[in-house]
Amino acid sequence: MNRNPFAICLQRFFTDHLTTGLRASAHTIASYRDTFRLLLNYASGQLGRTPTDLTFEDLDANLVGRFLGFVETVRGNSVRSRNTRLSAIRSFFKYVATHEPQLVHHCHRVLSIPAKRYERTTVTYLDQPEMAALVAAPDSSTWFGRRDRTLLVVALQTGLRVSELINLSRGDIVLGAGAYVRCMGKGRKERATPLRKDSVDALRSWLTERPGNDGDPVFTSIRGGRLSRDAVERIVGKYTALATEVCPSLKDKRVTPHVLRHAAAMTLLQSGVDCAVIALWLGHESVETTQIYLHADLQLKEKAMDQTKPVGVPSGRYHPPDEVMAFLQGRVDDWRGGGRRMGVAVPGGFRPLPVPHSPPWLRFQSPLIEPDVRISRIRLSDEIMPSPTESSSYARQGG
Predict the structure, then answer these.
(1) Could you tell me if 331 and 310 are in contact, meaning their C-beta atoms sit under 8 angstroms apart?
(2) b/e sequence 158-187, b meaning 16+ C-beta within 10 Å
């Protein structure tokens, strides 16, 4: 433990493992750095030691668990932020377990802390009237109003991430025939996104107003540098508040720069673009990531509902029953006309069948009786035996 103290392992984790070995992005390194700044400050406050004096015995599974609870309850972070902090801590202890075998059991206890499940809500996005109100909010009479309007138009049409927007350079914009914007996306994947006519016009006007070299940023601050992530969030929040006066539906939505990316994806989906193309457009690693927009598209679900039938309605066309089979399924009293009338159900009502005249006597020759024994008449049961009045009436009818 004294040969490899905690501080030395932490420094090697950032300098050798993340920077040189994994070649992690600046955003990943910054996220890991913020996690350990929070963790060491929390441990110092709990144990009364400076971060340099902390040891691996101090940072055990119990303290890490309390720190994750502190992130949720005291700092008010979401469960997803809590899991992000845990992911950075796990990465460090995996590195320690590989390079310090004597600490494997200690690291295993920390690595066994599970990620917390969280509710997966549908994504928030803007519809066409809301997007139009947001784009119209900036004041085009000022240079920063024209900059902000151009930024909003490009973000809503291309769906670029905040980091991709603020890192755009003039050389990444290609105008004219087949206009597109080129960016280096998440995971160091370079992609080109085509530009619509309104985006081309806005960018051409803005770049003409603010000339510069190919390496200069497209969206500059008042000092000429690149905009920060916080600056873009303030811009979106500012014009969302102004657009709420024109479009009140924005009041119920928490609009962030990433919501503009969701709005671009939903516009493509509602226009009939395939999910695989949307994944390429947004720079997603997998098409499964794009499935979140299918869950949020209420119009798509309404179209599917229109193709279904209400519960209780039989499928197919109506076919009336065969009259012969309906007759044979009736009761004997119905045949005689003494009970209910037989009929068939027809659309809009009930059509009775005519009552047939059944003969009072059945005449037949039985093959089981010897030929010299003739049975000419068999008395039927009283249930179907016609009365004398019915018999004489039948005889007068020619029966």
Answers:
(1) no
(2) bbbbbbbbbbbbbebbeeeeebebebbbee
- List active site positions: 161, 186, 258, 261, 284, 293
Banded model confidence at residue 286, pLDDT cuts 50, 70, 90: confident
Question: Ramachandran region of residue 284, left (φ > 0), alpha (ψ -120 to 50) or beta?
Answer: beta
**Residue reference for tokens 């900059």:** 147
Q: What is the 3-state secondary structure (H, E, C) of the chain?
A: CCCCCHHHHHHHHHHHHHHHHCCCCHHHHHHHHHHHHHHHHHHHHHHCCCHHHCCCCCCCHHHHHHHHHHHHHCCCCCHHHHHHHHHHHHHHHHHHHHHCHHHHHHHHHHHCCCCCCCCCCCCCCCCHHHHHHHHCCCCCCCHHHHHHHHHHHHHHHHCCCHHHHHCCEHHHEECCCCCEEEEECCCCCEEEEECCHHHHHHHHHHHHHCCCCCCCECCECCCCCECCHHHHHHHHHHHHHHHHCCCHHHHHCCCCHHHHHHHHHHHHHHCCCCHHHHHHHHCCCCHHHHHHHHHHCHHHHHHHHHCCCCCCCCCCCCCCCCHHHHHHCCCHHHHHCCCCCCEEEECCEEEECCCCCCCCCECCCCCCCCCCCCCCCECCCCCCCCCHHHHHHHHHCCC
Question: According to the per-residue pLDDT averaged within each range, which of 5-9, 111-115, 310-314 is highest?
Answer: 111-115
pLDDT tens per residue across span 234-268: 999 999 999 999 999 999 899 999 999 999 999 99
Task: Provide the token pair at 122.
Answer: 């549908």
CB 165 within 8 A of CB 219: yes
251: its two tokens? 């009041």
Per residue in 42-77, pLDDT tens? 999 999 989 888 999 999 999 999 999 999 999 999
Q: Which residue has the tokens 């600056």?
A: 231
**Structure token pair of residue 283:** 């720079």
Flag whether the pTM goes above 0.85: no
